[in-house]
Amino acid sequence: MELIMRNMFQSLGKNTSANKLAKKYGLRFGAGRFVAGESIKSAIEVVKRLNSEGKVVTLDHLGEFVYTEEEALESSAMCIQTLDAINEAGVNSNLSLKMTSLGLDISKELCMKNMRKILDRAKLYNNFVRIDMEDYAHCQLSIDIYKELRKEYDNVGLVIQAYLFRTEQDINDLNQLNANLRLVKGAYKESPSVAFPEKKDVDENYQKIIKQHLLNGNYTAVATHDETMIEYTKSVVSEHQIPKNQFEFQMLYGICEEIQARLVKEGFKVRVYVPYGVDWFGYFMRRLAERPANVWFVLKNLLK
Predict the structure, then answer these.
(1) Could you tell me where the DSSP H helices lie in 151-276?
(2) Residue 132 appears among annotated catalytic residues
(3) Where does the chain bind substrate (predicted)?
(4) Of 6, 121, 182, 271, which is the active-site residue?
(5) What is the pLDDT of residues 179-232, one digit of tens each?
(6) Rounded distance between C-alpha atoms, residue 168 and residue 278, angstroms
(7) How far is CA 12 from CA 7, 9, 87, in A?
(8) CATH (residue range 36-276)
(9) Around Cβ 16, how many Cβ atoms within 10 Å?
(10) ∠ CA 156-93-80, rounded to 5°
(11) Which residues are annotated as a binding site for FAD?
(12) The one catalytic residue among 60, 105, 130, 132
């Protein structure tokens, strides 16, 4: 049943008609737990609250299904507005983005143009931008663009997914750039020809790349809600005396808040991934697909 539900939500997340309906009817049925509203104003208020709890943030203006240059330019402008709002409010947050929302599927040149505008603005504010990794079809191109951008910018990082067979080699290659990486298990539905189909294999590879990147001496963002992986990371940094300013834990807004609070109390840096915007449906569906507990939360809201 869990597999059926996961596949259903992953398919819904890619459905353009469902996405249009979601935009029309707004954040309802529990999505507000995971998405910080539709406006930058509401997002900044969430960031302020999280900062007051000792957490730092990465804001993501949600955008999927970008098919025209005009839409890509609008998305790029929203990323810049987000950086402006962060600076104006004086909050502790950086920016996460998906390059498909900046026109990657239209042309690499358009995407690069938008990325440079965003990174220039972030550099002006001494801020940092994280490129989210998307599905396997975009993996190599995303890495290639990251490598190209790193020749010009030092305020940009990338996400790497543990469920792909290629990941260990990718981390070896990116070590030459002293890459700042967010390490995740992976949330897209991929073919068993490119990704580990079994959870135990994904978990094993995740531990391997956490240790690999930490011991390479590069900044490591361990993005997980899995307490086993959190404790594993603690054991690695303790055993190898890795300073706390070389890594952080990252978690999603609205998920495992008690673990977030505990890690802050223990003196670890915790960054909360806070998405906002009208284009929230695909993100919300992936969160439901990842964790059955999220589905029950939504069902309870429906019953209410």
Answers:
(1) 167-174, 199-215, 227-239, 257-265
(2) yes
(3) 98, 286-287
(4) 182
(5) 999 999 997 889 999 999 999 999 999 999 999 999 999 999 999 989 999 999
(6) 36
(7) 9, 5, 36
(8) 3.20.20.220
(9) 12
(10) 65
(11) 133, 161, 185-187, 199, 224-225
(12) 132
